[in-house]
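The methods section describes the discrete structure representation at length, but only in general terms. Each protein is reduced to its one-letter sequence and a matching series of backbone shape codes. I believe one specimen quoted in the main text would settle the matter. An entry of this sort, consisting of the sequence and the corresponding backbone structure tokens, reads as follows.
***
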Amino acid sequence: MPKFYIKTYGCQMNERDSEQVAHSLVARGYEAVANEAEADVVLLNTCSVRDMADQKALGKMGMMRPLAKRRPEVVFGFLGCMAQARGGSLFDGLPHLDLVVGTQKFHCVADYVEELVARKRIVAAGVGAPSHSRMDDLRFSISDTAEEGGSQEMIREQKLAPLQATAFVSIMQGCNMHCTFCIVPRTRGAERSRSISEIVREVQGLAARGVKEVTLLGQIVNLYGRHEFPAVAVVHDRRGDALDALTVADLPYKKSPFVQLLEAVHAIDGLERLRFTSPHPIGFRDDLIHALATLPKLAEHVHLPLQSGSNRILKAMHRPYTADKYLRLVERIREARPEVALTTDIIVGFPGEEETDYAQTRDLVEQIQFDNAFIFRYSTRSETPAATAPDQVPERIKEERNKDLLKIVDASAHRANERLVGRDVEILCEGPSRNNAARLMGRTRTNKIVVFQDRENRAGQLMKIKVEQANGFSLYGTPLV
């Protein structure tokens, strides 16, 4: 049985794309392995959001050249965002690279792999191509970064591990926001969404196979379907006092396609928890806040990218909100769901960011007290407006601001977790801890990692844990019988 290895860089959407590729290869009779040295096919699914992600993937592929020389029959490929951005130029300097597949062609990977495997078998048999291809002959490589209509419908199947309790579900592809620092509209294309009925069928199938929690994925997930499907007018809803509590004054209001999708998935039998990521503040409207308040399966966690606390920098980033509007949105979310955990993304050192701009970001982060945050030093991305903007910030200053903000976020994360010590929390057990296989781990509804010991493998089970210790990253506790 031929073997394949996939390494994934970047976000949850990349993880989901890799799952689709793995499913298609398994369906062709391939076996997944955890080490590239054992594989007949080696695929790197890449990320291009920051330069470091590019360099990691390029470095990894470069390190595989000795393997390619020892085993010339092995197929090596780049998939995903970096493949989309760089295309066939990736073959330059990587003579063992055979395959480059962009973000709208994941469903073609298995076909291309089979074609390349067959070509290499012919080479090994001494028929046709010279024995050194593809090490220096581009005629024996495949590159496909073309756009394809309907490609968002192709990410719909996945290979589940035994007792797997959680799954990602891709609901849309692409982005139309064009933030000035971001390469995603170029690598992922324009927004395009799957139908509600197709997504519901996928989640129903996952629930029937034992999955208890799904995370709906989109580049800007709360803008799902805005070009394809109509919003629905809600004339009046007095089933509870949630609308009154949220001060939604202008009834009737519109229910977005995304909220319609949330309600449809929420109704699926067997599903216990529902998450989504990542939303954009500009699309977080009354109907979504109402859904947070009234859909009990919807987990109490919102990842809401801030990027900057400076209105001047937000405008330069083409982020169409102000720091004050973001703060008011946070207050409304917390009013709707008091137990909610809020996490965010922040960029430091964006071109033109002065000390006063950074101070405004720092102050807003201290005021909001996020449960956690991903903080990134601005990374220049080619063919984005920010790449050629004046007043680029020196790397030394980026590093100083990054370290300073990390201290603030780490402290607020530690405080948020410490508040849970002594409390009983519900977790969904996901299996052995990544850092200590002798322990188990799961996540709370607020997406906090809980590590505990048990004599049985509780993977896939909802459990109560008494929290006994905490740090800024994890909780530690004991199962309650």
About this structure: Residues 395-418 form the longest helix (24 residues). The CA atoms of residues 75 and 113 lie 7 Å apart. The chain has three domains: 3-144, 151-419, 423-479.
